[in-house]
Amino acid sequence: QVQLVESGGGSVQAGGSLRLSCTVSGYNLTTYCMGWLRQAPGKEREGVAAIDSDGMTTYSDSLKGRFTISKDNAKNTLYLEMNSLKPEDTAMYYCAAPGKGWVRCRPGMAYNYWGQGTQVTVSS
């Protein structure tokens, strides 16, 4: 079974940085793609970033280069490095997988497997 567990969230001042982690089981990162999404209170979930099985990355147009998605295949772990954080980045952040067989992911695509989420709060 696919299990995704996020960690690394917390409270940070505007301009600060955080690195989120997602431990993955039942899903081979060397073969399949994954993504990060977020949901702010009262808003729909939005795609943040995605990484293909070969390591190619894709980002939401609104991020302006502040976020970086990466993975460590040997550790079965997905990461999201967030820099220059703004209050508008406050949200629950989720890692997600579309399912086995998917090689290419994009931030706005539909994902079938989700972690429990980790809260990121940015204060001004």
Could you characterize the architecture of this molecule?
The protein is mainly β and 124 residues long. It has no helices and 11 strands. It has strands at residues 3-7, 10-13, 18-25, 34-39, 46-51, 57-59, 67-72, 77-82, 91-97, 113-114, 118-123. A hairpin with a 6-residue loop joins strand 4 (34-39) and strand 5 (46-51).
Keywords:
mainly beta, 4-stranded antiparallel beta sheet, 7-stranded mixed beta sheet, about 120 residues
Topology of this protein?
Blueprint: E1 3-7, E2 10-13, E3 18-25, E4 34-39, E5 46-51, E6 57-59, E7 67-72, E8 77-82, E9 91-97, E10 113-114, E11 118-123
Parallel strand pairs: 2-11
Antiparallel strand pairs: 1-3, 3-8, 4-5, 4-9, 5-6, 7-8, 9-10, 9-11
Mean pLDDT: 96
Order of helices and strands: EEEEEEEEEEE
Give the helix proportion (percent range): under 10%
* pLDDT < 50 stretches: none
**Which structural class do you get from the secondary structure elements?**
mainly beta
Count of individual beta strands: 11
Instruction: Tell me the radius of gyration.
Output: 13 Å
**Number of DSSP helical runs:** 0
Beta-strand percentage range: over 45%
Report the major sheet. Answer: 7 strands, mixed
Q: Using the alpha-carbon principal axes, give the shape.
A: globular
User: Alpha-carbon distance between the termini?
Assistant: 40 Å
Task: Quickly describe the structure.
This protein is mostly beta strands. It has no helices and eleven strands.
